[in-house]
C-alpha cells in the first residue's frame, strides 16, 4: 500500500522503508506506553505486525503505527506515533484511518486499541468504548 496526500506526505506498508532505530527511539523515549522498550522487542514486533510508516515529502519518516492481526477476524491497533513537530496536521488521523480502511478490506469485525489520552482523536474515526468490557480479561506476564 502506498498512499499520498496532496501536500506530499506518504503512507507506506513496505517494512524495508521503516527506520527501526527511529521507531525504537520514539517508542522507548517518548511514548508513555512503551518507555524503555528494547530495540530487539521493537524489531520483533515489526516482523509480526502489519506496519504503516508515515513519511514527509522529502522521504523522511515522521510517524508509524502497527496492527497486530490475523487479517481475518481481529486486529489490535498499537504503537501509533507521530513525531512532535508534525502533529496538528491531521497526519495521525490519516494514518489510523488508513489502517482502519485496510482492516475493513480484510472483512474484520473488530479492531481494538488502548489509549490514556487520545480518546477524542480515535472517536472521530468511529472508535467507541467497548460495549461489553465485562467480557474482556487480561493477564500480566511480566
**Structural class by sheet pairing and helices:** alpha+beta
Q: Name the average pLDDT.
A: 95
Number of strands: 6
- Distance between the amino and carboxyl termini: 35 Å
Percent helix range: 25-40%
Strand order of the largest sheet: 1-2-3-4-5-6
Q: Which outline best applies? A: globular
Name a few traits of the molecule.
6 strands, alpha+beta, 28% helix, single chain, 142 residues
Your description of this structure?
With 142 residues, the protein is an alpha+beta fold. It is built from four helices and six strands. It has helices at 20-30, 39-47, 91-105, 119-123, and strands spanning 2-4, 10-12, 50-55, 61-69, 74-82, 110-112. It is globular. The relative contact order is 0.15. The mean pLDDT is 95.
